[in-house]
Amino acid sequence: MKALEGKVAVITGSTSGIGARTAELFVSQGARVVIVGRREDVGRAFARSLGEAASFIRTDVTVEAEVAAMIAHAVGTFGRLDCLMNNAGSGSGYQAVADVDLQKFDTVVAVHVRGPLAAMKYAVPIMAAQKSGSIINIASVNGARAGLGGHYYSTAKAALIHLTRCAAMELGENGIRVNSLSPGPIATGAFRKGGGSDADEADSSVDVARAAIADVVLGKYQPLPCVGTAEDIAQAALFLASDASRLVSGIDLVVDGGISAGWPIGAVREDRARFLKHFNRTS
Questions:
Q1: How many CA atoms lie within 13 A of 181 on its CB side?
Q2: Burial class (CB in 10 A: 0-12, 13-18, 19+), 30
Q3: Which residues are catalytic?
Q4: How do 133-138 and 83-86 pair as beta strands?
């Protein structure tokens, strides 16, 4: 039996990158999936490519009425709702505290925190009636480790991680599991979108992201010598969506190649040796 046989999932931000690969994997594992995004032509074409197991609805997750319609579409089309994956996101770049644009900050929070909360608001009654459900909030290693991302994005992801814990404590009695999933740097078009590039152009820049991660991140920040891909996150999401994780709730599953654990030995070996020399000198 397939891991998600008979289950229905809603995945926001699923017209490209992590969301799109997760949708493909979920369908291959027996799920019916609602594809969610703002690019209607791209979303409808992608849903058609997945066959009758997929349906698209255009949704801006910052608009509550559209989020409510998204959940209603899932239930109306497929009859139930077993998994909600809040994946829609936007980059914010880096800015000094003295230069912050509070309107842009509000926009990032609206996408990454308010949007997931709105989706949970409308999904929870459906899941509670079923006495089961899995909610997966896509956070980031930047939500737990400072200095690697911009202030807006990092703060929003930290809030999402804690919102996940709070929701898990409330919803467990209804059989609903709530977890966050925190990727490290993943080779997708998200980096160029954060820099203001056109979404279609950014989606074609995966090779650029892969090269940048390999050049800057591996060894210095990430101990595992492999570039993260959308597949890595999709596989983690599959675990959290499936009954294999039936006793897992309230956690932040970090998929970052070891970045959040500390300093890679290759990056600190020389400094550690220099430090220890101060204590090994003989007079």
A1: 27
A2: middle
A3: 153
A4: parallel
Number of domains within the chain: 1
pLDDT tens track for 32-46: 999 999 999 999 999
In a domain, 3, yes or no: no
Residue 34 phi/psi, 5-degree rounding, is -95, 120
Q: What backbone phi and psi angles, to 5 degrees, belong to 211?
A: -65, -40
Answer for the pair 190, 205: CB distance below 8 angstroms, yes or no. no
pLDDT tens track for 184-214: 999 998 886 655 665 666 676 789 999 999 9
**Which residue do the tokens 């600190």 mark?**
268
- Residue 119, domain extent: 8-280
User: Does 1 map to a domain?
Assistant: no
Q: What is the pLDDT of residue 177?
A: 98
For residue 102, the domain's CATH number is 3.40.50.720
Integer CA distances (angstroms), 112 to 2, 61, 164, 229, 232, in order? 31, 9, 12, 21, 21
Contacts (Cβ under 8 Å, ≥6 apart) of 201: 192
Instruction: Specify if 207 maps to a domain.
Output: yes
Residues 270, 60: contact at Cβ < 8 Å?
A: no
- Is the pLDDT score of 115 beyond 70? yes
Closest CA to 260 of 152, 154, 140: 140
Q: Please enumerate in sequence order all residues whose Cβ is within 8 A of that of 60, keeping only pairs 6 or more positions apart, or say none.
A: 38, 66
Token couple for 12: 């926001």
Q: Measured between alpha carbons, how far is 200 from 16 in angstroms, rounded to an integer?
A: 9
Q: What pLDDT, on the 0 to 100 scale, is given for residue 102?
A: 96
Cα–Cα distance measured from residue 37 to residue 87, given in angstroms and rounded to the nearest whole number: 10
Q: How far apart are the first and last CA of the chain?
A: 71
Condensed to tens digits (0 to 9), the pLDDT of residues 54-90 reads: 999 999 999 999 999 999 999 999 999 999 999 999 8
252 found inside a domain: yes
